[in-house]
Amino acid sequence: MGGIFGTISKKSCVADLFYGTDYNSHLGTRRGGLATYCEEKGFVRSIHNLESSYFRTKFEPTLDKFEGATSGIGVISDTDAQPLIMNSHLGRFAICTVAKIVNIEELTQHLLDKNMHFAEMSSGNTNPTELVALLIIQAKSFKEGIENVYHHIKGSCTMMILTEDGIICARDSWGRTPLIIGKKEGAHAASSETTSFPNLDYETEYEVGPGEIVKMTADGIEQLRPANKKMQVCSFLWVYYGFPTSTYEGRNVEEVRFTNGCNLAKTDDVEVDCCSGIPDSGTGMAMGYAAGKGVPYQRCIAKYTPTWPRSFMPSNQSMRSLVAKMKLIPNKAMLKGKRVLFCDDSIVRGTQLRDNVKVLFDQAGLKECHMRIACPPLVYACPFINFTSSKSAMELITRRIIEKFEGDANKNLDKYATTDSPEYKKMVAEIARELGLTTLKFNTIEQLVEAIGLPKCQVCTHCFDGSSEYTLHELADD
Prior knowledge:
Layout: E1 2-9, H1 14-22, E2 31-38, E3 42-49, H2 55-59, E4 71-77, E5 84-88, E6 91-101, H3 104-113, E7 121-122, E8 125-126, H4 128-136, H5 142-152, E9 155-163, E10 166-170, E11 180-184, E12 187-191, E13 203-207, E14 213-216, E15 221-225, E16 233-234, H6 236-241, E17 247-248, E18 251-252, H7 253-265, E19 274-277, H8 283-293, E20 301-303, H9 317-327, E21 328-330, H10 332-335, E22 339-344, H11 351-362, E23 368-373, H12 397-406, H13 413-416, H14 422-435, E24 439-442, H15 445-452, E25 459-460, H16 462-465
């Protein structure tokens, strides 16, 4: 995944840019970057690796280099090094993206065949943000260039472009990832997360629509391209990677999670002593479940945050597994002899959950472990955004179980994805058995969409049911 923040002001913007970008840190763990502009210094850029540290500690000591800047963009990225600074016939500009480009090799070859070259390589591969920049400068204007990106990439791309006279903000053509604009006296800001706004005194002013392009200055915003009529915003914004205080499409993350848990509780007949959330994204759902079920909410598991805040994780998978275990500490005093229902956002591989459940029974003395999941089973890998580090569908526990049952991990996927079908029930029962759970229940697509509060046609649920109204690359104009 990743998050971006940009701001332009009539006075220094450096503090707002630094803290606003930092408030996107839960969206990525690999690299962070800032780029600023002022007339005296021109463009200034800094990029740091975040795999062994945090954004704040890497950038805070060197903020003086940006002194005097009145506009800037920042990014937290799980993929490439960015922002990039370009010089082209469109002028000098800096660019950052939140993107997943499925056909990156095809587009790279297309540009090489046109005698273009790539200067920025990420681990020996094409830098997606540079690819986007090169597609933009094929056109006669930034608007036409961004539309060129929309027409060519398969996947998704939301971006900010810092120019000498403003910041151009463009949301993915299907609106799969958000981009929201805030305002305060003498300044505007845009962010992936509205969480960036309150402590910096910005008020949410405008939500950039799917495919919409706007130019932001300190005085206001100018629309360069209207929004598309259709949208497929990612449902995992509310389930997993969105910060609790953020709001997208008018729906607050914590409110959706609470509603999701409350609605699930009303259809659940299990008897338990208390309800607990798996920190952090399961907490809001668990509070809602407790309210809907009329059982106590208790913190049976705590997350150790002093050394592993937010979603910071190493890139190495074996270390990720160890850190995942180290971060969550069971409270034996609250667990021993209890029938506890836990709420979590999702089950991807299942490895971490299996290990945690074993600890709860063997070391904490738990009597029963009931698990409730905020979303349906993940049966399909996401081709649109990078919301997990999974490299293939076979990393999903559902696919491994389907292969076990069918001898083919791709067989009868529609049946396994259909709630309460014989295949679905068999799959869920096997997941529960493998993870050592007393009972397991997933939310339904209908309940999740109801909690989000948007029409089903505007919410992407591809990873649950394989459905998407639209192709990977089809532009959303009617």
